Amino acid sequence: MATCPEFLALKQLRHVDIWTGELGAMNWGPRGAEDLYLMLEWADSRNLRELCMSHPKPFLGPQLVKEAIEQLLGLSSALCVVHEGMVQHGDLKPENILSFKGKDDKLLGTLKLGDWGLAKRQTAGTQPEATTSIIGQGTLRYEPPEATGSQLSDMWAMGCIILEFMVWLLYGKEGLMKFSRETIGKSEYDSPFYEVGSDKGCKINGAAINWMNMMAKHTGGRGDTALSDLLTIVRTKLLVVQLPSDPKSNYSPGYDSAMNIKLDIPATQRSDYIESGSRPYRARAWPMELREDLERILDISLVTRAI
Q: What residues does the Protein kinase domain cover (predicted)?
């Protein structure tokens, strides 16, 4: 009995924020041929895209900000497990992040990584390449500039997802729809978050840069709010065209982040912060670095007692 790629990826990954399932077979027809089916836990809510569209204007209070950071932390922790297992998801997008409602009344529920149909194992020698990709195996809008299918492609997609998520938090459904229209432009297809210049070099989509500049003014300066620090993570560590020259040494546990982290209470400034160092150069981060940065944001809440 042949096994499906999605099951092969899932069977080695166990994390509370990873959508899990079991593989079975059912006999059909007179010859008793086996058809495979993958039984997955029921997503009783919806995916992240549907969740955002069903709440036109979320109330951006301290609780929702904390909830959002917690869920992003869970996703980054899950991605750590994925990458440590030498697996690349390959198609991260809001539609593949599922929301599971619990007994509480949290708006976001528990977000989990789903749809592992394009997941693939990475070999120890896999090296990212800085070549331009037009269409790869994943969803065009969330594909990175490089053509290689490395794990760093997942981190670019996470940057796209977090940026769209922040647009929804700050400006609601209408803002998210406007962001999509402006970043797609006149193209009849979904445009990626980067564009290719006349010199064949890649850079961040100009409309996306304009939105991030506007959001930076809205959320305060770097270190003033949790959302401003989250935006800094996106700009300096995720939506980064430059890849590390040595993927293995780009990050190690405890590596200082390039920002001062503060807790966000909308319209409230904070004076507490964590001093941090600087990265030697700007290159796309790995999930462990993203996880530690998000943990710092939440740790500040325990210090200030603001949430």
A: 1-307
Q: Is residue 23 part of a domain?
A: no
Handedness of CA 94, 97, 100, 104 (dihedral sign): negative
Closest Cα partner for 65 from 113, 106, 99, 15?
106
Core vs surface per residue 151-164: b (16+ CB within 10 A) or e: bbbbbbbbbbbbbb
Polymer length in residues for the chain: 307
What are the two backbone dihedrals, phi and then psi, of residue 135, each rounded to the nearest 5 degrees?
-140, 125
> Nearest to residue 287, comparing CAs of 15, 9, 49?
15
Structural domain total, the chain: 1
Total-model pTM: 0.76
CATH of the domain at 204: 1.10.510.10
Which residues does residue 18 pair with via DSSP β-bridges, in sequence order? Answer: 113
